[in-house]
Amino acid sequence: MEKYYTRACNFYYGNHSKKLVRKKNSLPLNGNSNISFDHIEILSRKNKRLIHIKELKKLSLSFQKKIKKDLKLITKRKKFSKINLNNSPIIMGVLNLTPDSFSDGGKYNNKMLGLLHAKQLIKSGSSIIDIGGESTRPGAKELEIKKEWQRIEPTLKKLKYEKCLLSLDTRKSEIMQKGIKFGVNIINDVSGLKHDSKTINILKNYKIPFVIHHMQGTPETMQKNPKYKNVLLDVYDFFEKQIQLIRNKGILHNNIIIDPGIGFGKNLKHNITLISNISLFHSLGFPILIGISRKKFIKDLSGINDTSERIGGTISSALFGMLQGVQIYRVHDVNEINQSIKVFKILQFN
Predict the structure, then answer these.
(1) Is residue 132 one of the residues assigned to a domain?
(2) Which of 28, 78, 159, 187 is 20–30 Å from 286 (CA)?
(3) Mean per-residue pLDDT for 329-345?
(4) Is residue 80 part of a domain?
(5) Model pLDDT for residues 40-83, shown as the tens digit of each residue
(6) Stretch (H or E) spanning 341
């Protein structure tokens, strides 16, 4: 039997959204009437169809059952440990304590510089600091555990006293376990929990929130001609499979975040397809995180090469994501993104 997918479309905001929800002319995203939608796109690997929510009754009973199940996940109010999703989008500030990350490698890999930058990210509007000691840029080789921990330990010790959530960007279960004992609140594993077989047990034993991230291949190989049958649906199926795996392993909490992994084993067309249709992932029932900060697709579209000159493209991508209800942004330029979100909200939600 052909598999179908449900994507929320045509979003409304602010007071106008609230009025539509009250009149039952739109459905609230995540139980929040400040943002709602009135159309859904029904997709399969062969075709797609856009319909108004009031046209659901015209579908067959089996189809209605499938769509209503997805809509329940899309509209259900999501509760996440220590994160207020009603105040989204939320900013996750990037703190790379590496000498070789693609954008800011070498800038903060000193314990004092890292701490000072983290404080500035918090002051600029970050609710979450994502700290990492291993570069996962295209072509990067795996770093040994001892060296990765040496890079992040001094800053982690200091950061646990700051008023923010700490996210740990690592693929290694040993680093995760050490970080959790230092006060880490969220695990952000870019391998999608596949790199280290012990990772799932760490997540289960400590009951810690985590990100399921999609990556095709490894950082060393991921950009060597990535291929998909249908990137949007292939990535969705990956998430479904990983969610089922963690449930089977006994992780029952819902403090899970979905990240489609822009630039991780994707070419320009793949990235654009995912960003343009990112609201599909709401039907998985978890908040969406997107990392679009200074990514290569911005250079490919705009012609500007240097990573420090991609702030405009990062802002426009973030605002586009807001129009599809993305809840969390992982970014370097926190002040600029936070400013753009505040202004956009007032203009759009008024």
Answers:
(1) yes
(2) 159
(3) 94
(4) no
(5) 999 999 999 999 999 999 888 888 999 999 999 999 998 898 89
(6) helix 334-349
Among 109, 127, 227, 104, CA closest to 186: 127
- Say which residues have a Cβ less than 8 Å from residue 157's Cβ, sequence separation at least 6: 182
The catalytic residue among 151, 171, 295, 310 is 295
Asked if residue 295 and residue 148 are part of one domain, the reply reads yes
Q: Which domain holds residue 44?
A: 5-75
Residues 272-288: pLDDT tens digits? 999 999 999 999 999 99
Closest CA to 220 of 194, 192, 197, 191: 191
Q: What is the pTM of this model?
A: 0.93
Q: State the catalytic residue, choosing from 171, 172, 310, 330.
A: 330
Alpha carbon distance 82, 21 (integer Å): 27
Q: What is the token pair recorded at 118?
A: 């983290």
Number of domains the chain is built from: 2
Among 75, 108, 134, where does a domain finish?
Answer: 75
Q: Are 49 and 93 within one domain? A: no
295 is catalytic: yes
